[in-house]
From TrEMBL:
SUPFAM superfamilies found in the cross-reference section: BolA-like
Lineage of source species: Bacteria, Pseudomonadati, Pseudomonadota, Gammaproteobacteria, Oceanospirillales
Pfam families: BolA
InterPro entries in alphabetical order: BolA, BolA-like_sf, BolA/IbaG_stress_morph_reg
Domain of life of the source: Bacteria
Protein name per the record: BolA family transcriptional regulator
Family in the record: Belongs to the BolA/IbaG family.
PANTHER family reported in the protein's UniProt record: ACID STRESS PROTEIN IBAG, BOLA TRANSCRIPTION REGULATOR
């Protein structure tokens, strides 16, 4: 898979979030920013993203995924936000 394919899958399955994807093959780093994470624990946030990619993980198309999640307010001061 390519990063743009992973991004398209996530955008189609989780509303109101921005995704920043890096990686190649079946190993990716996902940064997700959105209101969907407001009020959720870190574990629940990761579960939301994993659930959106469960079919691809089960098929082996995605193997290793690193996930960081932020609300829009958290993203403003996140060190990962280098735009």
């Amino acid at each position: 898979m390519q990063p743009n394919e992973v991004k398209a899958l996530l955008e189609s399955r989780i509303d109101g979030c921005q995704f920043y994807i890096q990686g190649e093959g079946c190993n990716f780093q996902v940064i997700a920013v959105g209101d969907a994470f407001e009020g959720l624990s870190p574990v629940k946030r990761q579960q939301l993203v994993y659930a959106a990619l469960s079919d691809e993980i089960a098929s082996g198309a995605l193997h290793a995924i690193s996930i960081k999640t932020f609300t829009p307010a958290q993203w403003q001061t996140a060190p990962e936000n280098v735009q």
